[in-house]
Write a structure and sequence with these properties.
This is MauE/DoxX family redox-associated membrane protein. InterPro entries: Methylamine_util_MauE (IPR009908). It holds the Pfam family MauE. This protein is about 80% helix and about 0% strand. It is an all-alpha fold and about 140 residues long. It has one domain. The protein is elongated, with a radius of gyration of 16 Å. It starts with a helix and ends with a helix. The mean pLDDT is about 90.
Length: about 140
């Protein structure tokens, strides 16, 4: 039972985070698109129009998937991939030395770049824990 509760807590935290950031990016779409367009990563800058829609809609869809128990493992895996991608992007930003605004949206955008790295790493760890818990919890339940 403790594993199921922990799965619910992790899923709930990610749902809140993805809904908050996704909806904020959609509400502030013009700003989000502009911030992506000035990225030091030219591929992202050139695709900013598409990414500015796909990323926040994807975050909202991930939140919906995390609500559905049958989709949870897939949602945790997709979330882990997303956070790993965010960490790679943060590494590129920090490596570029360019002072850019955060594209996260809302309160999260007020964090320092260093805080972002730690926050995203913690979220990645939560996703990986969720994957492990779902895999082991439901595998054990299906054996009985």
């Amino acid at each position: 039972m403790k594993k199921k509760l922990l799965i619910e807590i992790i899923a709930s935290l990610l749902i809140i985070l993805f809904l908050y950031t996704g909806i904020t990016k959609l509400i502030e779409h013009a700003t989000f698109r502009y911030q992506l367009s000035i990225s030091p990563w030219s591929l992202l800058a050139s695709w900013s129009g598409i990414v500015s829609w796909v990323l926040p809609i994807g975050e909202v869809l991930l939140a919906a998937m995390l609500l559905i128990t049958a989709c949870r493992k897939t949602a945790f895996i997709a979330s882990a991939i997303l956070f790993a991608g965010f960490l790679v992007y943060l590494g590129m930003l920090l490596g570029s030395g360019t002072k850019l605004p955060c594209t996260c949206g809302g309160i999260i955008s007020s964090m320092s770049w260093n805080a972002h790295v730690w926050f995203d790493a913690a979220c990645l760890l939560l996703c990986m824990t969720g994957i492990w818990l779902v895999h082991n919890t439901y595998r054990i339940l299906n054996q009985h």
